[in-house]
């Protein structure tokens, strides 16, 4: 894509979007792994309700999630009061606020592929590791994580792509601050509002190509197993 078709604001939005998606993906892989493991193996009666909470972002409108996060992280919200007391200020309309919103909104796209991968392992590999003297932690890191590698790849790709495509939640939490909270989806919206359809076409077309590449990559990365369940 030639730079002549993209303004400095467009490039700033692109780089900010990539930065947001990268931070979100790394953090969610760390946070979602123990949660997915627990959901895959726990007999607790809380498994259903907690699994439902994890899945909520798939069915709730992004503006609903963004609204409640805005209230929670605002001056009168518990998280806002905590961050203010810690000297961190308030998170709405900051990049950190976008990261928090993205963590919540993309959570099921990280947890569910990992949960399916852990469930697919069964207990046999861990039992074998235990008979060889491995502790539970050793078995998890040396056996479970390597065997669940396809799930981690799927979770990373889906989380990154889903974060890139966010609109409603980032607009609610971050507003439209150039170079700070204005991501690609918001930049496209601005172009359309200004009747700058050519610029909107270049960014929107890039998003279409990106989405297509992601879907093709997922097809190639998934195990060649007819009985392999969908990651979501």
Automatic annotation (TrEMBL):
Topology of this chain in the membrane: Multi-pass membrane protein
Subcellular locations according to the entry: Cell inner membrane; Cell membrane
Domain ABC transmembrane type-1: 14-220
Signal peptide: none
Regions that span the bilayer: 12-38, 50-71, 91-111, 152-173, 200-221
Keywords carried by this UniProt record: Cell inner membrane, Cell membrane, Membrane, Molybdenum, Transmembrane, Transmembrane helix, Transport
Domain of life: Bacteria
Cross-referenced NCBIfam families: modB_ABC
Similarity section: Belongs to the binding-protein-dependent transport system permease family. CysTW subfamily.
Protein function: Part of the binding-protein-dependent transport system for molybdenum; probably responsible for the translocation of the substrate across the membrane.
Protein name per Swiss-Prot or TrEMBL: Molybdenum transport system permease
Organism: Comamonas sediminis
Organism lineage string: Bacteria, Pseudomonadati, Pseudomonadota, Betaproteobacteria, Burkholderiales
């Amino acid at each position: 894509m030639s730079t002549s078709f993209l303004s400095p604001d467009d490039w700033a939005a692109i780089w900010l979007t990539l930065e947001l998606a990268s931070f979100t993906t790394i953090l969610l892989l760390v946070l979602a792994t123990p949660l997915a493991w627990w959901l895959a193996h726990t007999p607790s009666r809380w498994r259903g309700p907690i699994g439902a909470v994890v899945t909520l972002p798939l069915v709730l409108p992004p503006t609903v999630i963004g609204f409640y996060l805005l209230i929670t992280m605002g001056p009168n919200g518990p998280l806002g009061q905590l961050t203010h007391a810690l000297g961190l200020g308030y998170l709405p309309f900051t990049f950190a606020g976008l990261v928090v919103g993205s963590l919540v909104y993309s959570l099921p796209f990280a947890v569910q592929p990992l949960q399916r991968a852990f469930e697919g392992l069964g207990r046999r590999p861990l039992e074998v590791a235990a008979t060889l003297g491995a502790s539970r932690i050793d078995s998890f890191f040396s056996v479970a994580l390597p065997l669940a590698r396809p799930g981690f790849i799927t979770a990373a790709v889906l989380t990154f792509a889903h974060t890139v495509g966010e609109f409603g939640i980032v607009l609610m939490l971050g507003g439209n601050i150039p170079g700070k909270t204005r991501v690609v989806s918001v930049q496209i919206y601005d172009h359309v509002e200004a009747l700058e359809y050519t610029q909107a076409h270049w960014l929107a077309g890039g998003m279409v190509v990106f989405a297509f590449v992601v879907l093709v990559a997922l097809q190639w990365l998934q195990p060649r197993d007819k009985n392999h369940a969908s990651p979501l």
